[in-house]
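User:
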Amino acid sequence: MNDMNQDMTSVIEAQMTAIGQRARAASRIVGCAETQAKDAALLAIAEALEAAETTLLTENRLDMEAGRAAGLEPALLDRLEITPKGVKAMAQGLREIAAQTDPVGEITDLKYRPSGIQVGRMRVPLGVIGVIYESRPNVTA
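Assistant: Predicted structure:
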């Protein structure tokens, strides 16, 4: 790996660490939030995505130009590209999540033990899961 790639890797690593730390801190707040607040946040993010569509597409064009100049393979450029349809799909995906029933607090498999105590499973927020993948992220948009 050349020096430029090492520097870029270090920068990306630092950015991802910072994002993860902020996400973990936010998860403690969101984990205790009422369903209505979580749904409102998801809907606000969807609105913000759509409102920022022009900026997102403009910045993505710059990313695409830089990718072409760097000689990225067409498949990688395809993964990098954001289209108006992609922005709409991301916003719609957030709206669909907001429309789902919130499972947090749901109790299942409740049983009474001979001692009289109740034992069951309660759905609780998991926290933060970081996923990095490069294979067709535009499919999940």
